Structure formats: C-alpha cells, structure tokens
C-alpha cells in the first residue's frame, strides 16, 4: 500500500472505535439499570421530604405601586329655558358653561340632559363623554337654538326631575349620580302638590328632590339671583337643604369666567381624585409638577375672549401638544366661546410645563389635576350629602381625618397633602389623628374661614396660593358644644424618688358631667407621645370602660431622666343644630408628665441563623439586639457566645476577637447587629442530622443598673449539621450527579459478571466508512495498484443512526457515492455484508446484480476482479471501480 494512503487513514476519525466504546459502557450500565432506578427512587423521596422544610427559609418581597383610581360620575343637567330665565342670563352663558363641563369631564363619566319645559320633555340619555362629547354638546346647542319659551310661562320641574331620575337609574353600579338644576333663585314651578308634600307653594318639586336623595342621587341647584335679592336665594337654599339638596348662588348676568368657575368647582367636588389650581388675571408661563402629586391627567383651561387661542402646552417631555386630540382620549383639545383647553393623559406628567396663548390675555387660568388617589374627608363629616357644609365649633382646634386611596382601596403611599396650604397650614400625616388605621390626619389651630382647602403636592410656581386644591365648606358655629373630656395622669415622680423600673402610670379619662340635649360624645381612645420626638407619633394605650363613661388605662414609660410625655384622649361629637347634622372630632390633652425611672437596661435579642451548617466552609449566625436603657449615662455592655449544653462534636462559634463590647446610648433605645462565625461541621451519619444550639450571653452591668433579658428564646440559635441524605436534597443537581456516577461505578465493578449474561442478546452491525480517491487508478488493467498524483479523497460513511448487517454502495452520475440498505436498480455496485466465523465476524464484499458488464474487471480487490460471490474485505484494503480507488474502513460492532 502506498505511503500517502496509510497517512490518510491515520488522520481520519475512527468513529467506529468510539461508537464501540460508548456502546460497551452503555451495555454495562444497562445491566444494572434496576440498581440505578432504585437509587434514583430513594433520592426522589429524600428530595420530597427535604422540599417542605426548605420552603420556610424562602423569602419573598412585593412592591406596591399606585393604580388607576378613577371615580366615575354620572350627571344629568336639568336646564331651565322658560320665561324669566332669559332675564337672568341674557347672554346664554349657562349653555357655554354646560358645554365646558362636558369638555372637562374625565373619560368614564356619563352626562345626560333634560330641558325644563311646559311639555313635552326633550332629553338626552346618559352618554360616555370621551366618545360622545360632540353629541352631548350638540344637544345643548339645540336647546339654546330653540330659544327661551315665552308663550307658556309655567315651568314644570317635577317631570324634569323624574326624567332625570329615570335616566340615572340606568347608571352602572359604583358610579356617582348627580342632578344639576340650572334655573333662577326663586325656582318657581307650576307642579301640582303631591300627596304628603309639605313644600312651599310653587316649589312642590322639592318633594321630588327627597325621592331622588332616597335613590342616592345628589341634587344641587345653580340659581341666578338679581343683585339685592339674595334673600330669595337664601329661602330657596334653605328649603332645598331641608329636602336633602344643596344650592349655589349665581349673580344675574354673571360673566362667563365666573360661571365657568362654578361648574369647574362642582366637577372637582364630585370627583375625589380631582384638584384645581386657579390663576386670576394671568397665565403662568411655567408650572412645575412633582411626584408627590401622583398625576394621572392634567388639563389646562384658559378663560377670556373668544379670540384667545391656547398655542403652547409643552409637557415635561418637551412636546407641544396644544390643539391636539387623539381618538383614545389621552389628548383632547377644545375651543369654545370664551375658553380654550387641552387635556393630557399620557407620557411624563412630572416636571416643567410651558404655557402660552395668542390673541388675548386670559382673564383666568384653571389647571385641573386628576391624581392616582381619591381624597375623602371623613371628619368633620358633611351635614347632608358629601358636598354639604360641615359644621364645627368655633373656638377649638380643627381635627381633620381623611383617606387618600387607590382604586383598590389601598393607601397611596408618598402622596403629599396639606390643609390650608396658603396658611396657617398643617400637613397630613399618618399619626397626627390616630383614631383609625389607614387614615391621614391634620390639626389646625382654628377652623379659619368657611372654605377649607386641601392642597396636593407642592406649589406650582413657588407661591403660597398656587397649589392644586380641593375645597370643602367647613363652617364654624359658636352654638356647637365646646365641651371636652378630661385626662387625669398620676403626678410625676422625681429624680430622688423615681418610678420603679417595671412600674406603670395609671391614667383615667373623664367624660363631661353633662351634655346638651341631643349631643353625643364617644371616646375614641387614649394615646401618649414623647414630646422630644421630631414628629408627632401617638402610641395607643389599652383602656377599659368604667362607671360614668370613664376610661381607665396604664402606661409603662420607656424613657426617664426628665423626659416629658403628653397624654391625650380623642373623641367624636355628634348632634343636630337647626336641622343640620354635625359630626366632628375633639381631643383633650393632659398635663405634661415628667418621667424619672430607676436605672435599668432591658436587652432583647432575636437570632437569625441558617437552617444548616456547611461541610466545606464556615457559617454565620446573627443576633439583632435592642437595648432599651433608662440609665442617664452611657454604659458598656459585653457579649460572648458559647455552645449550649454538652453537645459532642459541635463546631466552635466565635465573635470577632472572641467577644464584643458596645457602648449603648443613655435613656433611649440602641439597636446593634452581632455576627458570629461557626466552623464547618463534619458530615453526619448517612441518615441522621445533628442539631446544635448556640447562645449569646450579655455581661453584667455596673452597680445600680439592673439588666433585664427579654425573650429568652431569642438569645439561642439552633442549627443542623446535615446528613448525606439531607445534603442530597439541599443540592439537587450535585446529588443527582453523584448518585448517577455511583450507580455507573457499581455497574462497572460488576461488568465481568454481566457480560456473559448479555452476550446472547448482542447483534452485529456494519459501521465505518470508505474513502474514495476520484480518478486515482490507471485505466490500464496492468497497472492495477499504481496511483496517479492528482487525488480527490472523499469519505463515504455508513449512517450512524441506522443499524444493518448489509449495506449497498451506490454511485450516481459517475462521481457521487452513498450507502443504502436497499439494492437499488442500476445504482447499487458493491454489497458489503457480515460473515460470522465461529465467534468472530468479518466483512465480505461482492458485486451486485446490477453491476455493469461483469465480464470486465470493473471491480478489483487486490488486483482480483470482484464477482457476485462474496470475498473477504480487509480493513484498509483497496477496491478499484474503473478509475476510482476505494479504501475500506468498515468494521463490525456488536450492540
């Protein structure tokens, strides 16, 4: 055989040898597959047992985010268009204001329309504003274009209110329902008197207001009033309030900006998530919004001349969205008689906004903000519906209790709210009025004026008055009871005679000896706070009721050394004044208590230890220690660690340096974290864990300072030195790999015994390849083994994925060779098969029945022509097919 042919064979990859080795191992391992399955089954059981306690050491966290808190409102506008109304509003601004109300209503709101007329009653059913704004505004325009009805001077209010109630009866559950009547201050009608109605003559429609209130439909009236006739409106307002409604006075011929402000205030009042900033006689060029406001939507509204255009509304993203609208409602622009607006409900709403107009200077700019939270003022409570006045006493601090929640009723964390931001102001905090969990409270020194403003976030331009605000009518009344509870506290101890370290202070709350008729006082709790704390932080005190409405309790002070405590009782007063309900909070501060306590130090420890120690590295055991001291000077405290009991084989535990000494602050709480190192543990027996308990030990304190250890179990930490089975469950992948390798090793050790048993199931197959040198043989038969110098070596392999004892070599187009298990006509040239000689196997080769012209020496093996009779084909032997030389690398493997 030529040298270069041998060299080529040495470089080729002998895949048959590799396949044989792999199958040899596979046969050995499969002999003991049962052993491996048993081990794997035991491992699975161990993992299942280990998975349950492991769950106790899994930590999870969640982050709550603010969600969409839209509160939808359905409103029916009941518009008077008969006789006298034309004298009160000759310019028809009531229609422009109604159209503005439609433009300002947020998506999700629904608006309907009813005209007060003699007969019939034109109406528009509820329609969602974001997709039907133009339709609603066109309906308002049709009423305006029909003109004031003068031929019939009798207005029929009752049918209009009944129609409005029927329309709102179709509101979806959870929607707020309001009826707004736009008429004159007298509101006279020609309605007949219903049975049982005691309303004034020509105002029998007031009894229908009662019926609507029973359906949870709020009724409010906007009444045009001639100058000097305020008494007319006052009478109508009183009668309306007596029947559950409310009223707002409008001066005759009110200009559009003032009328628009009334509608805007109503929109903000009925939406708990809406706030309003007002800029009179100007347009702020730049405003700044903050994250404290949690904005979801912002509307810029300019009021003034019809020639005024809002040309720039540049968002914090530096995009000018003025006069742009999108079908999804995230941008909405509108221009009406005397107003222009742009609403933005997408993108970044936090940062600087730039605003500009052209054509005329706005007489007023209103900026509406819709927050992600809804603000509800719980107390003082309204006297009627939620927009009615709230009555409070005139000469005592005003306590405010409110919520600011998302749509899933979760408190909106991080929002900033201020009572009366223009001053005197008070911030809302979670603990200022601690009578209800999940609420915010604020305390104003005095009730102030009749309008209470709740500010959202920060000032928009840096001033004190340019906040987003929500108005509430809070009216101080001198007639309301200004009586309070009395808090009795035990007299203070002195430094020479301090309170015992474990003693408590008795406290009592006394109710007023007598209350006016109809007045009820309910105690809401007794609280204490440290006046030296930087923020108001009331702590509740457990109380129990006693005779005469008294509350009794006790408090164990945590600090001494002359610290001052304040005790206070909170209560609620309810009653009725002039047919108006009132409900407000009150609190009674007790005298300052000066605390002196015997010197003592209370130490509480909580251990944080891993469930298992490691075999190959040390572990860490932690203790969180809280030291509460009433000593008036700083003192050191030393900690050491040790193994509890007489545990054998427990790994050693050490604090850094063997012990830790800390100096705790005097007369306050000190928190420290201690870490101790535990050495690696030796593997426990095959099936059994070992448990060890370590404990933290504090040293004694100086004379006169008593050490009190709290929570004894927290000073100890119990850990486990795991067994082999336990660690298999803790380290899943490593355990599976180890058990697998062990099973293979066992099978390998028993291979000798297994091979005779498996030999009877073995089957031989051909594998390997032939290497083809194209056009390498001299066509002269006498030069059978002489090779040319221009070679093209092509390996042709038997497919590794198919097993067979017989393969046929095919040639296509005189140059392409391939192996097949079928003897394909006209293509198959050589047949390779397996012959068994005793216990051994060999490869035979023969010409197929489709070989061309068998009379010619077309196929030659070692110079001999290949016939149909099979002859032995040695590995590395050359076969000549015309001018191609094939070198056999075929072999027999048993599987």
Could you describe the 3D structure shown?
The protein has a 6-stranded mixed beta sheet, sandwiched between helices. It has a 6-stranded antiparallel beta sheet with strand order 42-41-51-50-47-48, covered by helices on one side. A 5-stranded antiparallel beta sheet has the order 7-14-9-12-11, with helices on one face. The protein is of the alpha+beta class. Mean pLDDT is 82; it is low at 1-70 and 782-790. The protein is flat and about 135 Å long. Helix 3 packs antiparallel against helix 12.
Keywords:
895 residues, 13 helices, 18% helix, disordered N terminus
Count of DSSP strands: 51
- The average pLDDT value, as a whole number, equals 82
CA radius of gyration: 47 Å
The computed structural class is: alpha+beta
Strand content: 35-45%
Largest sheet descriptor: 6 strands, mixed
Counting DSSP H or I runs of 4 or more residues, the number of helices is 13
Q: Give the N-to-C terminal Cα separation.
A: 32 Å
Report strand order across the widest sheet: 3-2-1-4-5-6
What would you call the shape?
flat
Level of helix content? 10-25%
Show unreliable segments: 1-70, 782-790
